[in-house]
Amino acid sequence: MPLIPLPELRAALPRHARLIGLDPGRRTIGVALSDVSLMLASPYRGLPRGKLAANAAAIAAIATTEGAAGLVVGLPLGLDGSFGPAAQAAKDWAAALSAATGLPAALWDERLSSSAVNRMLIEEADLTRAKRAKAVDAAAAAYMLQGALDATRPPLGPPLEPPLASPPG
User: 84 FRET partner, CA 20 to 30 A, in 10, 25, 77, 94?
Assistant: First the structure.
């Protein structure tokens, strides 16, 4: 199944279907879920990174259980926006995962998502390094998915006109 642009993926989703956000790391795949209105992303869990077939089966099971109909996979572009070997590996993995799960997939820039989440967890949460390491993968996936949802959210409609002032008198 070919990768598709995120706006097309979002437009093609059935009503009330969720998106799964994936932040593929070397050891762990961070998993996040959108709500059914595609407004909010939440951390779901981390999956141990293994063989594609096993990871695809686990992700397909999450999709079935949670009512998800599409994947948004983090694309690790270089800090300057360049497309390097890590980005190519993520793109290839996303295409293979899409084919294996039967779910359409789109890529989304995830530069610095893990760093931003790590900083937030250090500053905001009183977690040990080990607990933070467990939490960061799913939180980074949610951070990435939230950015994708925000960027592709349809406009709410025309701005409201201010009420007309009543004539003096």
Answer: 10
Sheet holding 68-75, edge to edge: 41-48, 28-34, 18-24, 68-75, 105-109
Backbone φ, ψ for residue 159 (5° rounding): -65, 150
For residue 116, count CB atoms less than 10 angstroms from its CB and return exposed for 0-12, middle for 13-18, buried for 19 or more: middle
Residue type, 73: V
Please give the average per-residue pLDDT across 133-162, as a whole number: 79
Four-residue CA torsion sign, 157, 161, 162, 166: negative
CB 46 within 8 A of CB 62: no
Query: What is the DSSP code (8-state) at residue 126?
Result: -
Contacts of 101 (CB under 8 A, 6+ apart): 56, 59, 60, 63, 71
pLDDT digits (tens, 9 = 90+) for 16-31: 999 999 999 888 999 9
- Give 51: exposed, middle or buried? Use CB within 10 Å, 0-12, 13-18, 19+: exposed
> Each residue of 60-69: pLDDT tens digit?
999 999 999 9
**Global pTM value:** 0.81
